[in-house]
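HOLO CASE FILE
Compound: pyridoxal-5'-phosphate
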Amino acid sequence: MTIYNFSAGPAVLPKPVLQQAQSEMIDWHGSGMSVMEMSHRGKEYMSIQARAEADLRELMGIPVNYKVLFLQGGASQQFSMIPLNLLRGKLSADYVNTGEWSKKAISEAKKFSFVNVVASNTDRNCSYVPAYNEWKLDKDAAYLHYTPNETIGGVEFNWIPDTGNVPLVADMSSNILSRPVEVSKFGLIYAGAQKNIGPAGLTIVIVRDDLVGYAPSGLPTMLDYKTHSDNESMYNTPPTYGIYMAGLVFQWLKNNGGISAMEQTNISKSKLLYGAIDESNGFYVCPVNKADRSRMNVPFTLEDANLDGEFLKQADARGLLQLKGHRSVGGMRASIYNAMPLAGVQALVDFMNEFAASHG
Ligand SMILES: *Cc1c(COP(=O)(O)O)cnc(C)c1O
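Model generated. Tokens follow.
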């Protein structure tokens, strides 16, 4: 039976990537060593990290005045590193609240800064992207932070906010590499790897170089972007195996047409799944405003929540795994990141149609 894993994260990885990692596990390219066993300062490992960075730069079109940092601590650590490094003597930062991850970023920033919440969608249960013309932007803000894809609520921006000279900061943990983005519009982009990049334990930060170097004195060395920027992410031991795996994912993306091709597949996959939900005559419901539905994380509920258990049991038996919704939302959530093939979404839709027909 073919297994399809719809986990929100850590999440599905491309099969060819796992197979390559398996074949190189014990002896990487004739080195006689596993990547896990290599010195991070040896020439073999240095070549792996350099290639990963070069491939990511090529895939995303990252301009030369941006640093790519390979860090640890998860996206959650960025919730504090961002205000600590980017306030640059200013008193306030702008935040957009679109759901659970925005809220976490906001509550962490409040420890270091005044936070101006420019817009929020909590009036309608975090189910939409607030219209830009209603945002209360502060032109003196140190930066504006937003969450382009809310992994739990399934709300995704299909546009990039215009913040003028205020640096734009984006938590792209769950939609990085899923669609082309113009990096030059951002001051800083960050993402935990375990959704759309690779295994957990690696966090990628892409930061415009003029924003680095303003940490207040006394900030712990490891929390200062300059430490990592000045040392090519090798101030201390980087998460070497995670970076190697991310590098294999970048090569897989390049071999499959890059991010534009990936976006086309992601559009097809999400259309197929939302179509099945919307055409079920209310048997399945997606609470998210149609224009703001995520291509990566698709939350839906059953009209009759008493059937949730049976739905999940039968899905499991068909090899459709990890569909249970987030504990804060309930219902179901299908995460359909880059590595989820169209065939996986088709298998899910076939099952959903059959389940609705036999229980509707
Ligand atoms: C998963 C996730 C996080 C948290 O990532 P960690 O690496 O677990 O800290 C933050 N933001 C978004 C949008 C996420 O999807």
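CASE NOTES: Residues 9, 74-76, 101, 147, 151, 171, 173-174, 192, 195 surround pyridoxal-5'-phosphate (CB under 6 Å). Residues 15-255 form a domain with the Aspartate Aminotransferase; domain 2 fold (CATH 3.40.640.10).
CLOSED: yes
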